[in-house]
Amino acid sequence: MPFTSGKQAFLEILKQEGVEIMFGNPGTTELPLMDGLAREPGIRYILALQESVAIAMADGYAQASGKLAAVNVHTSPGLGNAMGMLYDAMKAGSPLLLTAGQHDQAMNLTEPILWSDLPPVARPYVKWSHEITRIDDLPRAVRRAAKTARAHPTGPVFISLPVDVLNAERQVDLLETTRVAPRIRGDKTAIEAAADLLAKAQRPIIISGDAVAHGDGLAEMADVAELLGAPVYAECVPSTCSFPFTHPLYAGAFPRLGPPIRALLMKHDLILSVGGDLFTLSLPSDLDPWEIGKNYPAKVAIQGDPKATLPDLAEALRRRLSSEALKAAKARTEELGKAREARVADLKKRAQAEAGLTPITPLSLVAAVAEATPDDAIVVDESISSGGGLRDLLKSRDAKAFFGLRGGGIGWGLPAALGIKLAQPGRPVVALVGDGSAMYTIQSLWTASHDAIPVVYVIFNNASYRILKQRTLALKGFSFEDDKYVAMDLVNPRLDYVGLAKSMGVAGELVEKSADVGPAMHRGLASGGPYLIDVRIDGAFKS
Ligand SMILES: Cc1ncc(C[n+]2csc(CCOP(=O)(O)OP(=O)(O)O)c2C)c(N)n1
Predict the structure, then answer these.
(1) Distance from residue 85's CA to the centre of ligand 1 (Å)
(2) Distance 532 CA to ligand 1 centre (A)
(3) Which is the closest atom of ligand 1 to the Cα of 410?
(4) Rounded distance, CA 280 to CA 235, Å?
(5) Residue 427, number of CB atoms within 10 A of its CB
(6) pLDDT given for residue 72 in this prediction
(7) Closest residue (by CA) to atom 1 of ligand 1?
(8) Long-range interactions of 356-359: CB distance < 8 A, separation 24+
(9) How many helices (H) and strands (E) does the chain have?
(10) What is the reported pLDDT for 113?
(11) Residue 276: which pLDDT band, with cuts at 50, 70 and 90?
(12) Any residues with Cβ below 6 Å from ligand 1, and which?
């Protein structure tokens, strides 16, 4: 089939790269592409009403599908709007192919309205940033971008598409897909050295990072953990289910503050960190040597895919561990399993004791949500300061069961949940979003309704930027004497999330008692459409 224009060639290459959906928001510089899409039934366009929504939807889609996600935004200001969520996508290592329209190159010297040099704008947050200047270069550039986004360490790439390149009429060779094989096995000698250290350790601790979930290596991680009988923590800012939440050895998220980190590490003599971020707030470190030992030296540093490499480590350990050592590891696993059960029971008891309080306490909301969440659901977490206990009370077990905000740029949860649902249409999706966070991308609700994407949203509504109050208190050594804040209360007026949802075609309800949370979630899940539950919760943190 001949491809006579740049836009046709671009869309055909995307299809060959596995793209079925393009997220975006168009303007005049995107019109050639939109015209091409109008004639291309193989790619569904999901319209976002602001560029940040488009990027976070694509990010969620990429993370939950493991596929390349295509997202197109308007030139200069559109790309500017995209940058916050692009930062989050970069931190999550999401393989996004971000494109923006650009003016006809014949006009650029005159600096027309909306023009700017786009690649330098995107460059800090992408692996490769490029403007195509000739139709002849289009296939090579798009193929390279698709390969680069998916090659480890995965991440977003950017291409600027001038109008004249997309409109150019010429038959070009579309070239072919290149996929760098992702299952890179770590160095054998280093694995033996790591096994030596681990077999000798008395009290090892494991950090299972997001890269374990990205590479679907939970079973392999659990095998190693059980051989050692070592507690497994998610990394400091975990954004995935990188170890089954219900596993006896699962200990929750690694603490984030210095004193609790020190207290925890004093109990252990060796850290095995797999695909995770060691204390600092950086990137998953599976296949990115830059991240390994970046801030803290590693005795043994292995670059490799966790799923491909952990079985080699398990095998090296099996060769070293005596039957007594294995028996002791089993006993430790049982003991830690009992401690985990006691922790969960205690949390449930506390939630039960708080269940009658109004406003609803964060813990009783978390417990009610966990109770009403189906076992096969995907939970999207942007509950910010009120989500404590989630990792103990949810039953998330697989690598795609839980997604959280990785980069810290808030406003991610509402749109990311839509991309996640589009990638995993067979699983219920429940998104837990702080009221402050929700307002950054509230337009997502229009897309949820317009494209009939059935996500159940639970708004953790404490009418404040509670975490900023907490952090202010922490700065002052948690002295409650001078408990005063500026610009951290979302009142006068208090936001009406059910009203906002309704105005965008999304059904919802207001909940003020924890006993009403479960029934509301069941109604939402049964509705078959998007649904928003605005839950008024306590914003205090003294209790
Ligand atoms: C894009 C962006 N802007 C601002 C911030 C700073 N910030 C971090 S958390 C937060 C408030 C979040 O409020 P909410 O979602 O209601 O959660 P809560 O603090 O009440 O738990 C703000 C403004 C940020 N992280 N990202």
Answers:
(1) 14
(2) 20
(3) 26
(4) 9
(5) 16
(6) 98
(7) 409
(8) 356/514, 357/514, 357/538, 358/512, 358/513, 359/512, 359/536, 359/537, 359/538, 359/539
(9) 21, 16
(10) 95
(11) confident
(12) 84, 384-386, 408-411, 434-437, 462, 464-468
Residue 384 Cα to ligand 1 middle (Å)? 7
- Calpha distance 451→443 (Å, rounded): 13
* Residue 473: predicted pLDDT: 87
DSSP string computed for 205-255: EEEE-HHHHHTT-HHHHHHHHHHHT--EEE-SS--B--S-TTSTTEEEEPP
Residues 6+ apart with CB under 8 A from 475: none
Q: Which atom of ligand 1 is nearest to the CA of 470?
A: 19
Closest ligand 1 atom to Cα of 461: 16
Ligand 1 mean position, distance from CA 410 (Å): 6
**Which residue's C-alpha comes closest to atom 10 of ligand 1?**
465
Q: Which atom of ligand 1 is nearest to the CA of 464?
A: 20
Q: Model pTM?
A: 0.97
| Ranges assigned E (strand) in 48-120 | 69-73, 96-102
Q: What are phi and psi of 44, to 5 degrees?
A: -85, 130
Task: Tell me: pLDDT of 439 over 60.
Answer: yes
Q: pLDDT tens digits for 158-196?
A: 999 999 999 999 999 999 999 999 999 999 999 999 999
Q: Report the nearest-CA residue for atom 11 of ligand 1.
A: 465
Atom of ligand 1 nearest to the CA of 440: 1
The answer to whether 284 touches 369, Cβ cutoff 8 Å, is: no
Residue with tokens 């889609």: 61
Which of 141-155, 283-297, 328-342, 344-358 has the weakest average pLDDT?
A: 283-297
Return the closest-CA partner of residue 437 out of 399, 381, 478.
Answer: 381
How far away, in angstroms, is 265 Cα from ligand 1 center? 30
CA pair distance 128, 126, nearest whole angstrom: 6
User: Quick one: which of 62, 71, 182 has its CA closest to 424?
Assistant: 62
